[in-house]
Amino acid sequence: MTPLLSVTDLRIDITHGAARAVLAGVSFDVAPGDTVGIVGASGGGKTSLALALIGLLPPGLRASGRVAFEGRDVLSLDDRARRDLRGRRLSMVFQEPFTALNPRQRVGAQVAEMATAHGQRDARRALRDAVTMLGRVGLAEPDERARRLPHQLSGGERQRVLLAMALLLEPALLIADEPTSALDVTVQGQVLELLREQQREIGMALLLVSHDLGVVAGTCRRTLVMHEGRIVEDAPTRQVFTAPRHPLTTALVGAVSRIGARA
Amino acid sequence: MAARTWRRLLDDRPARAAAAVLACASLAALLAPWISGYDPTLQPDPVTLRLVPPSWQHLMGTDPYSRDVLSRLLHGARVSLGVAAGSMLLAATLGTALGALAAVVGGWVDSFVSGLVDVLIAVPRLLIVVALVATFGALSPWWLVVLLGGTGWLTTARIVRAELRDNLQREYVLAARALGATKWRITWQHLLPAVAPQVAVAAALALAAVVPLEAALSFVGLGVQPPLPSWGNILLDGADYLTSAWWLVVFPVTAITCTVGAALVLADRLRAAIAGEEQAS
Amino acid sequence: MSAPASALVTVRDLVVEYPSPGGRVRAVDGVSLEIHRGETLALVGESGSGKTSLGRAILRLVDPVAGSVSFDGTDVLALTGEQLRRMRRRVQVVFQDPKASLDPRMSVGCIVREGIDIHRITAGADADARVARLLGEVGLSAPDAARHPGEFSGGERQRIAIARALAVEPDFLVLDEAVSALDVIVRAQILDLLAVLQAERALTYLFIAHDLAVVERIASRVAVMQGGRIVECAPTRTLFDAPSAPHTKSLLAAIPRMPW
Asked: Nearest 5°: phi and psi at B56?
């Protein structure tokens, strides 16, 4: 079966000077409907990888190599084609929900904009779908919440809004970069469960980036461990835990709380 | 961060060019008594040397009173730039002090200062200046400095107040409080350095505003009084000869334009440096 | 009822309110607790539980509207001016955000020195020597004093923040989500550092966190906050093995389960 996402020797360099590459040649595949976790210490290149996949690398960084999504090379697409891809087939949820939302626009409208930007002509229908989605991501009283501005929502609610935006058009692949780091523990669990649910319901593939193996463990079938711009381990999650090969992996496993195992 | 902002500015070519222009103008002004060939106020020969076009003896020609225009321009620079710099410094100091006071002390002090700024900012500065000059008569350059400085601090105060209030919420300020720092220490060590680049931008803009303002005042006879030269009153002397003696107008206007342009470029590049630094960190 | 002699910090019926668009919000709603000398009390709660406000009230960075806070027998809320400043030497804090809690314009050396200068503990070369020693204690090196916070990683910046707090030789340290913004490996390193420093300097810690899992290793007692109140306070082992409050149970249940 052709992989949904195929990354071959992806490199990310800083365009002006600097010796070390941000990403020094990374290769992996994601099958349709698969759940893959990417873990590593901060600065290891995980976020840059995620941004490169979706074509949102900040100006100062340059990607090279091949990233094939549904057969097409994402890196060589022009802006318009990339924008078309984003949200519809390939979505991303970022770590800090506050900065990713427009502070001056009601959240319902922002979610609806996902649909209208991708061809939905009927604005009212888009808004209705947005509200439905907000309900499905677990936002209580979605009609009421849809009319609020981002700062009038809690951190957990904002993250759910971002999820609604990312899931609205039922993408084939969702890249979630530390989606739970800014959230309370109880909300973390709910958001992860939500991701798993979506994954089951629409057959969405999930790429979950985190510095915490614990977050990845319950959700991802396969885990990649990144260290200083390279993949040092690529194995089924269980194996990463029970038989780690790289010292970083061992350290990450050790840092995960063992409390859960007790129960 | 401030050090890096200045370094960014130094790397910027337009900024360097603008700074060079201002430096030249200032240098010329300072050295005027020594580099100008003629006494700017003497009228050596009102008959034959009157309105001589630019020549090797008089690089910028002579004015209706046979005075060398270049010498007058150089001495005029002393006055015009001196008044501009002086009022800029006064405005920057007043604006920073009052803005900081309003932000840090808060309460009724803040209400008072903010209210004052809001009211005064609505009144056209030119009107106030003209009214005051009309009341008190011809002013010496020192009083001009006070007048222009005293009416030019409003925007700076607003900027400083807004920045400081914003920074007061930052965690490093909270940490300083937890260490036992007094409000004044926090203002001096943490807050003012944070706002210094913006004050510099406001000061550059103030300079750009004051030079033409002083020139305009002197041109209508309300500013620097003859025979003391200023760029404005050189123009005044040449007003009747606009079409026949172009050098009386072109050189002062060029001087003013270059100075103002340089100040504006500097302000703009500094603003860009500040924004660039913020994006990078 | 008088507090036992070993209580370093005593909080009684504390109430902290904030103005908010809809009126006033009660962040801390009548909290009482004691922190004993040498212990690490963890204060755990979700966002909005009031834990940060409680910490700030104890530090007297916000003023409560009711209740009392006493430190080593002294009524903290009654202190003013010079006395308050002297108390600040003994009660220090490390904040959550390594980026925001250090002034980006100051050098690391100046940052760590600030407390020394404020309280005139020492000056000149002696102060610089102290700064160098402190940097060493937190795992950095003396030449780092000349650099700026922006050149360091999150974990290193927290070390600088710890050095800054220790410079005034406090007895009591409030760690306000001090490791929450760090990744797991660095988190573990900083927790180890804090444990070492506590033993070496006989410090008492109030460790504020939103994740129960983090506090299991380092806390001797845990207080759980919800809605401005303390719903449970017990020795760590007891809390984890036999929690009584429903909120504690849901916090424990939220810790990601290890499937293996």
From this structure: -65, -30
B-contacting residues of C 150-209, CB under 8 Å?
150, 161, 164, 168
Other residues' Cβ atoms within 10 Å of the Cβ of residue C104: 18
Q: DSSP secondary structure string, chain C? A: -PPPTTEEEEEEEEEEEEEETTEEEEEEEEEEEEEETT-EEEEE--TTSSHHHHHHHHTTSS--SEEEEEETTEEGGG--HHHHHHHHHHEEEE-S-TTTSS-TTS-HHHHHHHHHHHTT---HHHHHHHHHHHHHHTT--GGGGGS-GGGS-HHHHHHHHHHHHHTT--SEEEEESTTTTS-HHHHHHHHHHHHHHHHHHT-EEEEEES-HHHHTTT-SEEEEEETTEEEEEEEHHHHHHS--SHHHHHHHHHSPPP--
Three-state DSSP class for residue B145:
helix
Number of structural domains (chain B) is 1
pLDDT tens track for C155-206: 999 999 999 999 999 999 999 999 988 888 888 899 999 999 999 999 999 9
Contacts of A215 in chain C (CB under 8 A): 256
Q: Which domain holds residue A96?
A: 5-262
Q: What is the pLDDT of residue C113?
A: 94
Third-level CATH fold of C7-251: Rossmann fold (3.40.50)
| Percent of all residues in chain A with a pLDDT value above 70, rounded to a whole number | 94
Query: Contacts of residue B169 in chain C, CB cutoff 8 Å?
Result: none
Phi, psi at C69, each rounded to 5°: -130, 125
Task: Give the chain C residue nearest A220 (alpha carbons).
Answer: C259
Using one digit for the tens of pLDDT, what is the confidence trace for A51-76?
888 888 877 788 889 999 888 888 88
Copy the structure tokens of residue B100: 């900081």
Tokens encoding A224: 């990649």
Pick the residue with more confidence: A258 or C182?
A: C182
What pairing do the DSSP bridges indicate for beta strands C7-20 and C66-71?
antiparallel
Q: Which residues of B touch C (CB under 8 A)?
A: 1-3, 170-172, 174-181, 185, 189-190, 193-194, 281
Q: Are strands A222-227 and A35-40 parallel, antiparallel or unpaired?
A: parallel
The domain total for chain A is 1
Domain of residue B137, CATH code? 1.10.3720.10
Q: Determine, yes or no, domain membership for B256.
A: no
Domain ranges across chain C? 7-251
Q: What is the ipTM of this complex?
A: 0.89
DSSP lists the bridge partners of residue A69 as A5, A72
Does C48 lie at the interface with A, CB-CB under 8 angstroms? yes
In a domain? residue B121: yes
Nearest CA in chain B to C104: B1
Q: Of the candidates C183, C184, C257, which has its C-beta nearest A218's C-beta? A: C257
Q: Report the CATH number that the domain containing residue A48 is assigned in CATH.
A: 3.40.50.300
- Each of the 281 residues of chain B gets a pLDDT tens digit; together they read 467 777 777 778 888 899 899 999 888 888 888 887 788 777 777 777 788 888 887 888 888 888 888 888 888 888 889 989 999 999 999 999 999 999 999 889 999 999 999 998 888 888 888 888 888 877 788 888 898 898 889 999 999 999 999 888 888 999 999 999 998 899 999 999 888 888 999 999 999 999 998 888 888 888 888 778 888 888 888 888 878 888 888 888 999 999 999 999 999 988 888 887 776 65
Produce one character per residue of A229-252: b if its CB has 16 or more CB atoms within 10 Å, e if not.
bebbbbbebeebbeebeeebbebb
Higher pLDDT, C64 or A157: C64
Residues of the domain holding B223: 85-242
Q: What is the spatial distance between Cα B245 and Cα B156, in angstroms, rounded to a whole number?
A: 41
Q: Residue A31 and residue B64: Cα distance in Å, rounded?
A: 89
- Is B40 contained in some domain? no
Nearest to C185 among A214, A241, A251 (CB): A251
